[in-house]
């Protein structure tokens, strides 16, 4: 399996606090069926892209060395989770923020209320620049539960949707669970990820989480969302 959304990289956002916690989460991921883990720390500061990338890459190198020392053969790749805002319009080159230097870019919207026209403008800006946005956890956004027309507008564009496995299992409430299951079964969303933040509650143990998956989600759904689509993403292959 390939987990394309995680906050496992240490001391860079609200995920793993230190290198020891990163190692523990990587070990848990590998022992629970994940062979490739994409490190996607939150990114907000579009005025300082290169300083973020320099810090991220340095810490990835440290983590890779630690995993070799611990004999954990997990493949870790670089990425980021961009917070969509008007700041994107003034940002320079965003290539270093994509997943594994591909065209695919993981993005998140505000969880609370916002102007829906803005998010379409932000997506169109990324598309015009040649990126393929991946909207992280659409089932968690209040606005998408209130405005179904916005979902249609997003789906009309070449944008991928990634749901959190915890949402499918009901950890984020009944509303997000219903939306997540519906998006997966109707093939609106073709990616599932851990969005892991810690070793205990929002962890990387995918096989453990899969044991709780509702019956509506089939083995074919899991293969598509945790193997086939993410493999195309990290290899920069066409999907849409």
Distance between the termini: 21 Å
CATH architecture: Alpha-Beta Barrel
Helix coverage percent: 40-55%
CATH class: Alpha Beta
What are the low-pLDDT stretches, counting only 5+ consecutive residues below 50? Answer: none
Number of helices: 9
Which secondary-structure class do the elements indicate? alpha/beta
- SSE order in H/E notation? EHEEHEEEHEHHEHHEHH
Based on Cα principal axes, name the global outline: globular
Number of strands: 9
Radius of gyration: 17 Å
Name some characteristics of this structure.
240 residues, alpha/beta, TIM Barrel, globular
Give your account of this protein's structure.
The protein is of the alpha/beta class and 240 residues long. It has a single domain (2-234), classed as TIM Barrel (Alpha-Beta Barrel), CATH 3.20.20.140. The chain is 40% helix and 14% strand. The chain is built from nine helices and nine strands. The protein has a six-stranded parallel sheet. A three-stranded parallel sheet has the order 1-2-4. The two termini are 21 Å apart. The mean pLDDT is 96.
Give the helices and strands, then pairings.
Blueprint: E1 2-3, H1 19-31, E2 36-39, E3 42-43, H2 49-69, E4 75-78, E5 81-83, E6 104-108, H3 116-128, E7 132-136, H4 142-146, H5 148-155, E8 160-164, H6 165-168, H7 174-185, E9 191-193, H8 206-210, H9 219-234
Helix pairs in contact: 1-2
